[in-house]
Design a protein that fits this description.
With 120 residues, the protein is mainly beta. It is 9% helix and 46% strand. The protein has a six-stranded mixed sheet with strand order 2-10-9-4-5-6. A four-stranded antiparallel sheet has the order 1-3-8-7.
């Protein structure tokens, strides 16, 4: 059963922008802190940004000032606006409930993700 669907990735030149979207099932979205993660080739998945139900946000140092996370609670949707993209941002991006990932660990559900490729 698909619980999250990420979209919006693509191929973009360095300095460009992309907007990622994630539609999540209520069982995932609910009243949970939602987050975007990414996994670059040969690297572990890392937390990029998170947003609480009250719209409090946190960002990895590597994306501060360039990425903006937001959520639409009425539509169970999370967004990631990515500006000033760099080749180091190349990765598959996933969204998930940060709350559930913390609880479920390696048993957490992950969607297919959306691939972002930044070329210089």
């Amino acid at each position: 059963q698909v619980q999250v669907v990420e979209s919006g990735g693509g191929l973009v030149q360095a300095g460009g922008s992309l907007r990622l979207s994630c539609l999540a099932a209520t069982s995932i979205f609910g009243l949970n802190t939602m987050a975007w993660y990414r996994q670059a080739p040969g690297k572990q998945r890392e937390l990029v940004a998170s947003v609480t139900p009250a719209d409090s946000t946190n960002y990895a140092d590597s994306v501060k000032g360039r990425f903006t996370i937001s959520r639409d609670n009425a539509k169970n949707t999370v967004f990631l606006q990515m500006n000033s993209l760099k080749p180091d941002d190349t990765a598959v991006y996933y969204c998930n409930s940060k709350t559930l990932v913390a609880i479920q660990g390696t048993n957490a559900y992950w969607g297919q993700g959306t691939r972002v490729t930044v070329f210089s």
